[in-house]
User: Fold these one by one.
Assistant:
Number 1:
Amino acid sequence: SPRRPAARPHVDTGALTLLLLCAALAVLSFAWARSPLFLFIYPALAMLAFHARAAWVFTAIFFVSILASALTAHGLGPIARLSPDGHLMREDMLQPYLFSLLLVVLPINNAVGEKRRYTSRLLLLKANLEYAATHDALTATMNRQMFETVLGTLIARHDSGIVLFIDIDDFKSINDGLGHQAGDEFLKAFGARMRELVGGLHGSVGRFGGDEFAAIVPGAFSPAERDHLCASISDALRAPYRFAGITRSVTASIGAAMIDPGSAGADDLMRKADIALYMTKASGRNGYTLFGMPPAANAVPPPSMIMLQ
């Protein structure tokens, strides 16, 4: 396969501009010793400390220090004017000047850096809280409230699609026979498979509690396509699961309802899907029912139909 071009390193143009400004001010202030330009180095460095990371600040101080030392050694700048004949005195006066630059920028940069870290922690905490408030902790699928919000948004946009209400057949036997910890491990595996199946169709998955899940698959479906979709999902859910050190196949019952541009609302659609799910269970489970249609058998779909990825 062709190799992707290497990503170009990101350059902070704002910080680079301020760094060059500090260097230019150092040169100009020491070249024109009678001007007070050297005083403007302080606010320039302070601005750099506010808007850039510590590496940029130390780089700017390094360049300013090199330039100031070199120009002072050649008898240029305000420090050389104050001690025109004494090289040692120039060094004694230059050191406090350079040290004063550090005293200006380091506290600012430390405070700004701490504020950035605090802001990052707050944003991370906010994201974690939002995720916890909208997702099921065990299966990492949406919780019921978030799922119904997504479904309501789809209906409000007058989009088409299909909503599935899914119940794991005989889940109680896993809990009773293998223990609740194994049951939780299976629910994780089941949720992961649902996310994989529906996520590839740009859909959403939610857990309504216990062994009940729901899914939304957006799009316009012909009668053959909707049957194929439900049959393919039902067939994929029967494939063996690996959990708690064992491999086991489990079936699921599915109730489906079509999402049309004129759908009444999320509650009405979920009610229809629940009725369809009840009909699937009443007819022997391990299958699917579309609301308003008789329960369907899980026949293998013909090759002409598009298979789920």
Number 2:
Amino acid sequence: MNENFAEEIRSDLAEGRVLELAELVALNAVDDAERALIDDHLQSADEAVRQDFARRVRETEETLAEAYATAEAEPPQGLWDQIQSKIADQANSVQADTVQLPDPATTPPEQLKSEAIPGSLSDADAAQGAIPGRAAATDELAARRSKRTARSLRGWLIGAVAAAAVIVAGSFGVSSLIQAQDPIHQVISAADSRISTVPVQGGGEAKINLSSSRQAAVLQMSDVPAPQSGSTYQLWLIPVGGGKPSSLGLMSSADDLGKPALVQNVKTGETLAITVEPAGGSAEPTTKPVMVAPISL
């Protein structure tokens, strides 16, 4: 177990940042002992936290799988040199924050005194008595530097893997990697994605992509006129059985209407609906819907 990483993992767990470790787990960037620390913490965590952690691991693994789901090909010439260069650049940025100390075995004693550790007491200071609190401040500075370096190392590890992924993906088209990471694209391109078109009162239509594997829907408006001044379109999710609708957001301009809306964790029996509301939206629908789309996964 790398003690620097292990200590950082313990700190993250103690401070409630377990979800930040999901990508490291997906990248296999922790060893068995470090993974055991994370698993032990998750066993006592809330169910929602465990599910969110598993989702983030799964999505990262799926993104990597989709990014590399391509025909086998010879790697580009010099690929490994490019990867090593990226890693070296990242490592140098971390090392730049480390204080370089003289080697006592090869440095004369008088030079060691002149190259004292930053923040330490000089001989004159020691003769006059240590300044109160100075040693504690030096210890705190060292602790902060150590913690920052550990975080930088962890960020460097993820960055190095990501850099390698981008280099490899670049051989087949970086746009494919970007699209694979886009949750909207994942719904639209899912093998089980189904499209339905629903007319919008007042003109235009709403196109809805539904994916049961993603448990998500993507809503795209087409040729729908912008709302009148002082009003806005508001998107709602009505639960199974017709309970209180949940607001999913506002579409107040032509620019808003041109952007796809992602609705996650949808269930069969729920309903997407759009109403016209006063500018700024409403806590609940106040007008008859101009678009209604039942969800069937």
Number 3:
Amino acid sequence: MDLSLRDLEYVLAIAEERSISRAAQRLHMAQPALSQSLQRMERRLGARLFERTSRRVAPTPAGEVLAEAAESILGDVRRAVERTRVTAGLPGVLRIHVSEPSLLTPRRILAAARANVPQVAIHQTTLPRADVARQLLAGDLHLAIGGRFRRPGLSSIYVREERVGALVGSRHPLAEAPCVTAADLSLFPILSVDEEMSSWNDWVLRYLAEHDLGPTWTREVIFGLSTGGDILHDQQSVLLTLESVGRDYLDGLVWKPLEPARTVPWFITYSDEELSASPAVATVLRVTERLAIDQGWTASENVR
């Protein structure tokens, strides 16, 4: 065989990252080593796989064909390995992305999953948002809890709506208000959330734009509620966040609902191929639907 599975991983990473340096970082290897491996592949195949300039790397038609095949082959191999392990009596693995693991909704979904698939080891992770759909389709992830991911081959189950509000310090000027408006928010710095990990800033921008307003962002960029909570003790900053955060993180902080009320949805997303191949994925989805009904969140429905 002219190419190994490792070679296919190299081609796929370069095609997706459009950069040899970023692909090397993703693969945890040195850039010169990846460049040399690519050159060897191209010599063996007798075809140029990528056009490389000082500013960009783009797959050639031959490179696009190989990258598409690599994604399919690598996904098939991962699934075959997992089925082999299960058949041999070894514990299976479910890899689940959670957008904000400390919140109530994902905690309850994960607890229900562990209770209903005890033979499976659940590996929880939080990935940059741009990587989630790709890893679901490639078989590197089995499920994603958080916002909805729209790609051919992916489906989502709608879990619930959750109210949005403002989390502030207990001595903040908004702390005594019964609710908070967009105009109120425009008077204070709003905590910026890491845009590589979350699209939350986009939601804040859209919400304020509906009222012809824009945010004043804090200089600090956060990801994770513990960091955000520390900053809010300055009694000036505001964190727009979900209602369950207000219930769980009230040590010196108060949560005030937006007026008019606004909500955001929670979804659990999966690949259609994984659903047909993995009984554990199917079980977790059924359990999540039942949980949503039992908790009074919503009557669940499949959406694409």
